[in-house]
C-alpha cells in the first residue's frame, strides 16, 4: 500500500489545484493567489525538503508552482464571458431610456440575440414584440420558448404558442391545431422579462401589465 501513497497524494493535489482554479474567478484574487503559490513552491523545495519527504508529498512544491503559473496566466479568463454579451458585441444597439439592464435582462437579451437576432440600429423597448417587431415565428419561436423554459426554469403555465405565433409552414398537423385562434397577439420583451422574474407564465397578467 505504501508504494501507492505518493500517487494517491499526487492525484489529491491535482484535484485540489483544479478546485482552486475553478473556484477563484476574480482577476485580483487569481493574481495574488497565483503569486503566493509561485513563491511557495520554491520555498518548500529549498527549506522544507525533509518534511516533504517524510510526509510523502514530494510533488507538493511542483504542483504549487505550476498552479501559481496557471492562475497568473489565466487571471482574466472569467472576464471574457462578459465580452460576449450583445450590449458589448453590438455597441450600436439602441436601448430605450429606463430599459432594465439587470443580470436577468442581460441574460434574456443574450438568449434573444442567439435565437432570433437583435437589430443593431432599432430601439429596443420593453414593448418591442418578438413576433411582430423582430419577426420571430414558426420553429424559431418553438426553439426560443423551449430555451427560455430550460435556461430560466420558467413554468409556462397557460402559455399558448398559437396565440402569438404561426406554426411551422411544413407542419400540417400543427397548422390544424392552430386553426381558429384568430389574430395573433404581440408577445413583448417586457412580458418575457416579467415571466422570468416571477418564474411563471400567466397570460392575462402578463398581457395586462405589458
UniProtKB/TrEMBL annotation:
InterPro entries: ACP-like_sf, DUF1493
A Pfam short name: DUF1493
TM spans (from-to): 6-24, 31-52, 58-79
Source organism superkingdom: Bacteria
Keywords, in A-Z order: Membrane, Transmembrane, Transmembrane helix
Protein name in UniProt: DUF1493 domain-containing protein
Species the sequence originates in: Pseudomonas extremorientalis
Organism taxonomic ancestry: Bacteria, Pseudomonadati, Pseudomonadota, Gammaproteobacteria, Pseudomonadales
Amino acid at each position: 500500500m505504501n508504494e501507492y501513497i505518493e500517487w494517491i497524494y499526487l492525484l489529491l493535489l491535482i484535484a485540489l489545484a483544479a478546485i482552486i482554479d475553478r473556484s477563484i474567478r476574480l482577476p485580483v484574487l487569481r493574481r495574488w493567489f497565483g503569486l503566493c503559490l509561485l513563491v511557495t513552491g520554491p520555498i518548500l523545495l529549498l527549506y522544507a525538503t525533509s518534511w516533504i519527504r517524510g510526509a510523502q508529498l514530494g510533488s507538493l512544491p511542483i504542483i504549487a508552482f505550476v498552479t501559481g503559473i496557471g492562475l497568473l496566466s489565466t487571471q482574466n479568463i472569467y472576464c471574457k464571458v462578459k465580452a460576449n454579451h450583445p450590449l458589448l458585441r453590438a455597441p450600436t444597439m439602441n436601448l430605450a431610456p429606463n430599459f432594465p439592464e439587470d443580470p436577468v435582462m442581460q441574460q434574456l437579451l443574450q438568449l434573444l440575440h442567439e435565437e432570433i437576432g437583435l437589430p443593431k440600429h432599432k430601439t429596443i423597448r420593453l414593448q418591442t414584440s418578438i413576433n411582430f417587431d423582430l419577426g420571430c415565428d414558426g420553429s424559431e419561436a418553438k426553439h426560443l420558448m423551449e430555451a427560455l423554459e430550460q435556461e430560466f426554469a420558467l413554468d409556462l403555465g397557460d402559455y399558448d404558442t398559437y396565440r402569438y405565433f404561426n406554426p411551422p409552414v411544413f407542419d400540417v398537423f400543427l397548422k390544424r391545431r392552430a386553426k381558429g385562434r384568430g389574430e395573433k397577439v404581440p408577445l413583448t420583451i417586457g412580458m418575457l422579462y416579467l415571466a422570468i422574474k416571477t418564474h411563471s407564465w400567466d397570460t392575462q397578467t402578463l398581457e395586462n401589465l405589458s
